[in-house]
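Budget justification note: compute hours in this period were largely spent on complex prediction jobs such as the one shown. Inputs:
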Amino acid sequence: MLSPVILLPAILNGLMTGAIYALVALGLTLIYGVLHIINFAHGALLTAAMFAAFFAYTLLGLDPYLAVFLLAPLFFVAGYALQRFVIGPAAHGEDRNFLLVTLGLAIVIENALLYFFRADTRTINLPYAFNVVEFGPAFIAVPRIVALGAVIALALALWAIMQWTDTGKAIRAVAKEKLGAELCGINVAHVFAITFGLGTACVAVAACLLIPTYYVNPTAGDAFVLIAFTIVVLGGMGSVAGALVGGLCVGVIESLSSVFLGESLGQIGIFALFIVMLLVRPSGLFGTRA
Amino acid sequence: MKTYLPIIVVVALLAAVPLFTTSNVVLNFLVTALLIALAGQGWNLLGGYGGQYSFGHAAFFGTAAYATAILQVRYGVNAWLGLFIGTAAGALVGAAIGALTFRSGLRGSYFSLVTLAFAEVLRIVASVAPITGAGVGMLIPLDLHAQAFQFQSRVPFYFIALALVALSLLVVRAIENSRFGAYLAAVRENEDAASALGVDAFSVKLCAITISAAITATAGCFYAQYFLFIDAGIAYGPWISIDALLAPIVGGAGTVFGPLLGALAIKTLGETTKLVAADAPGLDLVIYGLLLVGVIGLAPRGIAGLLRTISRLRPSSGTTLEDSHG
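Corresponding output:
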């Protein structure tokens, strides 16, 4: 059981899966860190993005890795508009209403997809989807390596945006002290919407990286959201680095607990970790005390 | 006594419904609405009055449903006894989760997420453990006798559900009027300030989650008896956690009648959209979701809040149905 022939592939595959988890969590943690709301529509937006990537390939013949450059800006705009014109006004600035509005949106998006595309599960066939690279005893599919690289690049880019651009500074200011930022002339509604847009763009990128090896149906995104919550808590709410490291950890843990506990109990490891983490160190690995 | 009068009136009005119709469609609709109102009343006590937003009330609902089902199927225990044991089991799970989470000082979103995780762990365990019937679920054998808590007609079920809801209304009203209720509201408004004034916030929250879990647990037991089938997705699935928080928030969180108003509203909304959308899959829920967002946009304090605003606009209309806190 403990032989490296089994463990190494499990760990490497876990890292690759974890990269996608990290990306979904990145969007969630960004939104949480700034707006202090739990975005229940995140999974539905991921599903929508997966459908978009699917149809970009089947209808336009656009390779998912190229579709990123179309879908990420598109979803950024969609996320911006959603927050600015729907969620923000409807929520009246109250946490519980944010929760309900995003929940309502999730219901709308998921069922609109169900209505238009039915419950069929769809996949695309890319010529390179089954190419593998050998790492010792492990064979890793090429799309998963691409995903890991892309996620790390995106996390770095996001971190740079947050660190050095004016928009990034404004986002951090709003996250720290909303009222103070507003008094300094920062348009909080605009910053909220930008953040929501960035979070949604992350989801679009995740969808494009997922679609070569994953399937899409109207509830495909849900599976990722609970895991993303775990990662957000593990890494520290609002922390970009935390989401990245947390995502990779969770991927490995899931993969290892599937090996040791069997497929159906694989996710127990994640939730157990989640609960223990919350009870012992709720601020997460990289978070500051909330 | 005066504060209990609205409860008596509302329950009496609802109790009169079977005099006018015994249509299974109407009663089925009302029973499921009452079921949601009951589960939601549990959530309301902890979330509405105590400010602790649980996303995992399915943990209590499901534990109770499984407890009563397992006791009946595997140990031949009487269903009525199962109702009490199931409620106690749900309360116990509530106390355990509360002790763990409140002891480690989890608040706000952290509390919400950890309750969600507990419900998910239970769901996954229930979907593989042999005692719960694993993926197949549990079927309570048909035995249409009053002593087995099973009835041919919907009417007795309706009255039992109404009685449970009435009891939950009275319990919550009594808590609202009590010293404990004041502590709970103080913890909701500002936990640190409440602690500074000598309120033992931990005990107050622990007590609240235990009672809250017990109320939602009775809904779980009732569900098992009414539908005679449960599986992991029904008992511990997110649907009940969502309905249990949706009903009070839509109706007016932190008000006695919020869950009942909300449950009736969301069930009506759901059934109407089903009728409108006919057999197009998903369309009904699209409309439902849109209406939900619209309702929250227009009535951010729930239906109870909306009613209060309307009555303030027309001061001559007398007292409102609900005026627990401003």
